[in-house]
Write a structure and sequence with these properties.
The chain is an alpha/beta fold. It has one domain: Class I glutamine amidotransferase (GATase) domain (Rossmann fold, 3-Layer(aba) Sandwich), CATH 3.40.50.880. About 25% of the residues lie in helices and about 30% in strands. It contains 8 helices and 14 strands. The strands form 3 sheets. The chain has an 8-stranded mixed β-sheet with strand order 2-1-3-4-14-13-12-9, with helices on both faces. A hairpin with a 2-residue loop joins strand 12 (about 165-170) and strand 13 (about 175-180). The radius of gyration is 16 Å and the shape is globular.
């Protein structure tokens, strides 16, 4: 059964494209602009484009920190996309150290390709390699994204424990942590809403995932 999808609007999210992707899959979508809307969400999506520090400042200014944390602790699904994924972590080195939501252990660090001529930000397509040792790797939802190409636009990525790393990609010899998962909390460094038909199906499947599958 598909849930209602609640997308957090904190002023830095790619709200339109994420909304359109879920709506394409006939999901009911709410845009949350108040703490109360977040508190009543069944499936929460934290999108984002821009700088880590600004993102945290906006979440704090709008009083979103507590309801997002409470949602994560409730066991209900939480999906972070791009900057929204990075905000799930303890901290980021972008523009000086900044504290994050602290929902997944780890720190967001700048991409440093082995090839000095490689450009950062990393913009373009990367093939996902699913970590077969992750507890969720055998779920059809994640089997279907293994070896698929996803679209990235970012200069930073999270460094996390191996047990939370769900998939990675390579960029000029630099391993980029592309998907993470800790219990009910899932993060995509790439943009599934911009990554073609395979990831539109991914968003459809993830919207109906059972809580016991990810708890």
């Amino acid at each position: 059964m598909q849930r209602k999808i609640t997308i957090v609007d904190y002023g830095l999210g790619n709200i339109f494209s994420v909304n359109r992707a879920f709506s394409y899959n006939n999901c009911m979508v709410d845009i949350a602009s108040t703490p109360e809307q977040i508190a009543h969400a069944d499936f929460l999506v934290l999108p984002g484009v821009g700088a880590f520090k600004k993102g945290m400042q906006e979440l704090q200014r709008r009083h979103f920190l507590e309801p997002i944390s409470n949602h994560a602790k409730s066991g209900k699904p939480l999906l972070g996309i791009c900057l929204g994924m990075q905000l799930l972590f303890d901290s980021s080195e972008e523009n000086g150290d900044s504290q994050g939501l602290g929902l997944i252990p780890g720190k967001v660090e700048r991409i440093i390709p082995n090839d000095s001529l490689a450009k950062v930000p990393h913009i373009g397509w990367g093939r996902l390699n699913v970590n077969q040792n992750h507890f969720a790797a055998k779920l059809p939802l994640f089997k279907n994204v293994d070896n698929q190409f996803a679209y990235f636009v970012h200069s930073y990525h999270p460094i996390c424990q191996q047990k939370h790393l769900l998939a990675h990609t390579q960029y000029h010899g630099h391993k980029i942590n592309a998907m993470v998962m800790k219990d009910n909390i899932i993060g995509c460094q790439f943009h599934p809403e911009k990554s073609g038909h395979s990831f539109l199906l991914f968003l459809k499947e993830i919207s109906s995932i059972k809580q016991e599958e990810i708890a």
